[in-house]
Design a protein that fits this description.
By secondary structure, the protein is mainly alpha-helical. The chain has one domain. 72% of the residues lie in helices and 0% in strands. α1 crosses α2, α1 packs antiparallel against α3 and α7 runs antiparallel to α8. The two termini are 19 Å apart.
Length: 313
């Protein structure tokens, strides 16, 4: 069993992971190569962290697969449909009425959209119940290599992002850590030093840790080790825990609002490096306040059961 302190740390790590996702989706604007590299590197750790944590709890959870699918798919359908309607009326590329259902499905499934994570997660859960971890690791590493070398013929429907095999290694590693009770390992200063050295070397050699780089899983483990050690030596931050618990909702609803906010903030700040740095936390804070407000309103009108439909935890 996971104790309350460890549970809080994991929520805090998820908060940091969703912050990283905002970096991934609010692209860097400007000519600074160093700034862009750091910015995009931060943006590449969120999804792998979420996938490792999902694998970790997948093995510990006793809930049925059907129940897990409902917890993921219902919020996806609700938010996905809402954001698709916004996109339908605001996009310059119009879709014919005959093609709406197909276009909506591609949007929900993550074909060139940020929703790819949920279908990929479901595929990983299903595969983990059909094959051994060793076979899945080989399969995942093979897919990552083939993707890195441009062998797999991707297109706008089947992309490197919604190919579940490219994120499978992270999920399997999470399950393996869970089976070995890694949460009970003491993450001391040695862990931090070793992990930090590896992270620095990785960034020096590869610069940006793309999901399908075969060394990115080790990079992600190094980041998680550092975060776990640091967070375990400080008091619980209630705000981080809250953000972690709202991370699924933030992920589902953030993209279009965040992009508009990002553009406005960058313009108001006059551009430059500082504008790139400040636009992400401001966008996250505004969307967080909106998400919390929705939660408060639903509870106030005694319609709390709708919270689970929207992905609130």
């Amino acid at each position: 069993m996971i104790d309350n302190r460890t549970s809080d740390i994991i929520w805090e790590i998820k908060a940091i992971a969703i912050y990283s996702v905002f970096y991934a989706h609010l692209v860097w604007t400007g000519d600074s190569i160093v700034g862009r590299t750091i910015y995009e590197s931060i943006g590449c750790i969120g999804v792998p962290i979420f996938m490792i944590i999902a694998g970790f709890f997948d093995l510990k959870s006793h809930s049925l697969m059907k129940k897990r699918m409902q917890r993921l798919l219902i919020p996806l359908l609700v938010w996905g449909t809402c954001t698709y309607v916004i996109r339908f009326f605001t996009d310059t590329i119009k879709v014919s009425l005959d093609g709406i259902v197909q276009d909506w499905f591609k949007w929900i499934y993550g074909c060139d959209t940020w929703y790819y994570f949920i279908p990929v997660l479901l595929w990983c859960q299903l595969l983990s119940r059909c094959f051994t971890s060793k076979f899945l690791l080989i399969l995942g590493i093979s897919s990552m290599l083939l993707t890195s070398f441009g062998v797999i013929p991707y297109n706008r429907i089947f992309t490197p992002y919604n190919n579940p095999l490219n994120l499978l290694v992270y999920f399997v590693l999470g399950r393996e850590f869970s089976s070995r009770n890694v949460e009970n390992v003491s993450f001391n200063i040695v862990w931090v030093v070793v992990s930090s050295v590896f992270v620095v070397l990785f960034l020096t050699i590869f610069q940006i840790p793309y999901y399908w780089n075969i060394f990115t899983p080790l990079f992600t483990i190094g980041i998680i080790s550092i975060l776990f050690c640091l967070l375990s030596h400080i008091q619980v931050t209630p705000l981080l825990v809250k953000i972690g618990k709202l991370s699924f909702v933030l992920y589902l609803c953030h993209m279009q609002i965040a992009q508009v906010l990002s553009t406005r903030i960058y313009s108001l700040m006059g551009g430059g490096v500082f504008a790139n740095i400040i636009k992400v936390p401001i966008a996250l804070i505004i969307i967080l306040l909106l998400v919390i407000s929705v939660e408060k309103v639903l509870l106030f009108i005694k319609f709390g059961k709708a919270l689970s439909w929207l992905g609130y935890r």
